[in-house]
Design brief:
Radius of gyration of chain A: 13 Å
Shape of chain A: globular
Number of strands of chain B: 11
Strand content of chain B: over 45%
Distance between the termini of chain B: 36 Å
Number of helices of chain A: 0
Number of strands of chain A: 11
Strand content of chain A: over 45%
Radius of gyration of chain B: 14 Å
Helix content of chain B: under 10%
Largest interface: A-B, 30 and 25 residues
Number of helices of chain B: 0
Oligomer: heterodimer
Structural class of chain B: mainly beta
Helix content of chain A: under 10%
Largest sheet of chain A: 7 strands, mixed
Structural class of chain A: mainly beta
Distance between the termini of chain A: 36 Å
Order of helices and strands of chain B: EEEEEEEEEEE
Amino acid sequence: DAGVTQSPTHLIKTRGQHVTLRCSPISGHKSVSWYQQVLGQGPQFIFQYYEKEERGRGNFPDRFSARQFPNYSSELNVNALLLGDSALYLCASSLLGQGIYGYTFGSGTRLTVV
Amino acid sequence: QKEVEQNSGPLSVPEGAIASLNCTYSDRGSQSFFWYRQYSGKSPELIMFIYSNGDKEDGRFTAQLNKASQYVSLLIRDSQPSDSATYLCAVKHGSSNTGKLIFGQGTTLQVKP
């Protein structure tokens, strides 16, 4: 069975550019969450979508946006990239919105902003 | 005060010993607690989740929860070099209808052969 798939795996962007990260949840999972993990820290919550609706938003600027599609896949968009946006971006899926049994993470997209 | 606190380590134990990883949290309304393992350069992998006070065992892993003390721990018995990784404690607020997890910064475990 395919797990959570994310693309691309690595990305290098220049300050001020825009980036789109993609995530496909485990088949049957309807909830997708996005996290940012900088080196040496735990993941920080960015967004959660369940049944195509935003269920939660973390403390991130409006440059960050996301959406979920009818097939439950999701995109994370970041505009006007800053050096500080360099991080591992993780997508996590769960069967239910409340993640009762925890969340399964994808392998992540490593974003480097230069 | 951070919402979820872990000692960053590194915690070093010899092969075969018990490794004890600790985590405290600040929100008394928290109801779900998770332990993730993260190898260097990889994504977090769920090891255990626990909701009720007491112990929960799964193979060599035991999660312990004490809500009165706002404390959750992970014990790894018969530690192996392959257990060397960063262990992340994550907490979900009970009042939330969302899946937001609050993570600690992680504890690095080194198991020496």
